[in-house]
Every structure is written in structure tokens, then in C-alpha cells.
């Protein structure tokens, strides 16, 4: 199993400016985090640990009534996953950008990538959010990850069906999380491993 940390590496651009762009040009594009493979397992109090769901990486953007689901390639998949769009419009905050995964969950709560990839369950696809990059008129990327997680949980406190917060734990759990997926149902959540580790103090620009 591998663990990865994640980083965003683009310059800060005023939220209102890049939300209005139909497809973000390279100079304004808010890139997805780049995974960095680790050679040892971090095990300290300043690390956050969460399960890696097996799905499609998306950025969920809402600007008023306009909702977009942006892929790594810059395409808008809003028409593909209507449940996520509907759920995003039910959130009281009308301006936000979330980072996460589009997933299909089985009755056991385990993500089913084959069902997602088949396109036969598009109406069942949910958004698993693990980071918030902007809220209102505020760019949150320079805030520590722990503060962004708190903001994300507050934004989704009413748990609108179709969008949910990826659960995480904080503390000295690195070795436990590393060994657990190989011997539990968590293995099915992400065949490549199952656990993501992140520094609680990391910002979302140039951090690893």
C-alpha cells in the first residue's frame, strides 16, 4: 500500500474572476492536488488520516444557481451527475468550491468503481468532499488544512443527500492506517491502497 500527500500549485486568483470563466485557461486554472509518494509512514499528532474512496476526481463549484463539476481535463460533468448538482443547490451558501471524488456507494458504504465507470448508475453518483478551496468571496487555500476541514464540515453540516464529507481522523495513526486496508473491508474502497495522509497545517498552495 502507498500513502500520498497532496498539494495545489497555482497562484491565487480572485474567486469571482475565475468562477466566471467557462473553461479555465491555464494561467487561471485551479489545479488538482498532485499526489506525492512517501517512503516512510508519517506517525505524528499533526497528521490527518482519511479513507481514499475509489472514484473520479472532481471539483464542485457553485456560483449562485450555477453549478459545475470540473474534471482533471477541465470538462464540466454537471449534466452527467444530476444528484450532485441538485444537492449543491440545496446548500445555504451560494458560492463555494470543493475538492473531492464522484463515487457510487454500495449498501455497505464501499465505493464501487466498476459501477461508476459503467455509466449505468449516473443518477446514483454522490460527491465525497475532502477539501474546500473557496467559500463566499474568500479564497481559503492559504488556510491550514485543519481549518479548511472545519469550514467544510460547517458548510455541509446539514448533510444534503448527494454530497458528504469524507470522514477523517487526526493523531498518531499512521502505522495503523497503513496496515488496516490490507486486512479489512477498507481494501475495497481503493484497490491501490486505501489511505491518504495530510499535514493538518498544510496550505493548499505549494504544500506537500
Concise account of the structure shown:
This protein is α+β, with helices and mostly antiparallel strands. The chain has helices at residues 15-19, 82-90, 113-118, 145-155, 174-179; strands at residues 4-5, 36-37, 47-51, 56-63, 66-70, 95-103, 126-135, 138-139, 163-165, 168-170, 195-199.
Describe the structure.
The chain is of the alpha+beta class and 208 residues long. The chain has a single domain (4-199), classed as 2-Layer Sandwich (D-amino Acid Aminotransferase, Chain A, domain 1), CATH 3.30.470.30. It is 18% helix and 26% strand. It contains five helices and eleven strands. Strands 4, 5, 6, 7, 8 and 9 form a six-stranded mixed β-sheet that branches. Strands 10-3-11 form a three-stranded antiparallel β-sheet. A hairpin with a 2-residue loop joins strand 7 (126-135) and strand 8 (138-139). It is globular and about 40 Å long.
> Total strand count, please?
11
CATH architecture: 2-Layer Sandwich
What's the Cα radius of gyration? 16 Å
Q: First CA to last CA: what distance?
A: 19 Å
Return the average pLDDT rounded to an integer.
74
How many distinct helices?
Answer: 5
CATH fold descriptor: D-amino Acid Aminotransferase, Chain A, domain 1
Estimate the strand proportion: 25-35%
Pick out the low-confidence regions: 1-29, 182-195, 197-203
Percent in helix: 10-25%
Note the overall shape: globular
The profile of the biggest β sheet is: 6 strands, mixed
Helix/strand-derived category reads alpha+beta
Q: What is the highest CATH level, the class?
A: Alpha Beta
SSE topology string = EHEEEEHEHEEHEEHE
What name goes with the CATH superfamily?
A: DNA ligase/mRNA capping enzyme
Question: How many domains make up the 3D coordinates?
Answer: 1
